[in-house]
Specification:
Largest sheet: 6 strands, mixed
Structural class: alpha/beta
Number of helices: 11
Strand content: 5-15%
Helix content: 40-55%
Amino acid sequence: MQFQWYPGHMTKAKRAMQEDLKLIDVIIELVDSRVPYSSKNPDIDQMANGKSRILLMNKCDLADTNVTDEWIKYYEDKGYFVVRVNSKSGSGVKAVHEVIQKACRDKIERDRRRGILNRPIRAMIVGIPNVGKSTFINSFAGKACTKTGNKPGVTRGKQWIRLNKKVELLDTPGILWPKFEDQKVGLNLAFIGSIKDELYNIYELSLLLIKFLVEEYPDVIAEFYGIENSTDEVKLIESIAERRGYLKSGAQYDFDKVAKCLIADFRQGKLGKISLERPC
């Protein structure tokens, strides 16, 4: 399977972000804690141009806690300010206020020496589609400021949000990059829903997810669905179909229905805390 998705509006959004970065003091980038490398846009690194960087490990409730710890150390060693957050529940969100002040300490001190007091910090919120930016902003601001959705492409335009006297946020659309050099990155983004489901075969995707889970988390499928364990992906799909009654006319297995169910259960965290990649 080949994975790629870069619609025209993303090119326009990237150009706008490059212009807006001139106004920005700090970049706050959200990544999905299940895939902190695959969900981190390399184009942002090229555009950052020395800006302070905060990395939010979002959806931490869905990821393997020990693996997330490894990723936090990995990115802190690279100079990022890293915060573990769960935007839906609000866990970790308050800590971001303090981290913004810490990341912009030098800028605040420069302003003070110049006699510029109380100028709000301007932060740009960036991230790939469906990583939870809008949910984070609404939780961070304590009110519904942006549209949210569980599919990529909800936020299309930029908007400024004044949180308080100290911080202003610039929300931006979720953008990917023109080409995935490593198709494993594209696969991981398909698993978490950052690439539109209509662009690939959901059954084939489910088989690849099962293959990964059998290797890395061997008991989660059998335990969650109450079926006999196996290392055979197709046999597991058939067992889930029998268990859930996912059949078509003629008592044929409804493989597409099983595939959609399995992918949805993974994305919602029903299979447990699962990370799809580890730091090298």
